[in-house]
């Protein structure tokens, strides 16, 4: 299958987890892939893992200059971006009574500001008919103790997708959200075993998602097979937020 043949893709936050799995899937389906990460060694290793000539770019998703530099590298190499994935994110626990301004600001800087800055940086070289996938979370639709800031950022991502769909429709640029449920990533591995066990019990399929399952959904929405899908939020959650 080569649904992304001759497409140029940029995955912001593509050095690990869902971002890395998405970069791998994009490359396997024919895209020329660029991915970003904050750590130089991790980002280079990720690009080598993706293979197919993938390029790793060091960039902090919350810093406009970093994103502009990354997009500039894509432009110099190919002149355009056909598929954009905005995946960078963080999730740190805190009850409402524990929430600090710094905790709040960290989450919104990466999870929301990063997506806005990513869109602004990429838009000038996105061709008409390009496609965007924002990585959200079912946390944006449900209440999860200790994850208030994280959940609020993901609700904001969903809201931006609606607005950007309307704003960019004249250019034929589609914006959609992929919202995973609990997924087997480093972020989830950092939580307690008790937390993970309790989460799995809430999932009808009784397991977490694999990153490649989320990536498959993202690449479908980026591809021409989804040419009439815009502004949606696709839950990849084993039914957790659906029943």
From TrEMBL:
InterPro entries: KR_dom, NAD(P)-bd_dom_sf, SDR_fam
Keywords assigned: Oxidoreductase
UniProt keyword annotation of Oxidoreductase present: yes
One GO MF term attached to the UniProt entry: quinone binding
GO process annotations (BP): fatty acid biosynthetic process
Catalytic activity, EC: 1.1.1.175
Taxonomy, superkingdom: Bacteria
Domain (Ketoreductase) ranges: 7-181
Pfam families: adh_short_C2 (PF13561)
CDD domains in the cross-refs: SDR_c
Enzyme class: oxidoreductase
The family this protein is said to belong to: Belongs to the short-chain dehydrogenases/reductases (SDR) family.
Name of the protein described by the UniProt record: D-xylose 1-dehydrogenase
Native source organism of the sequence: Phenylobacterium deserti
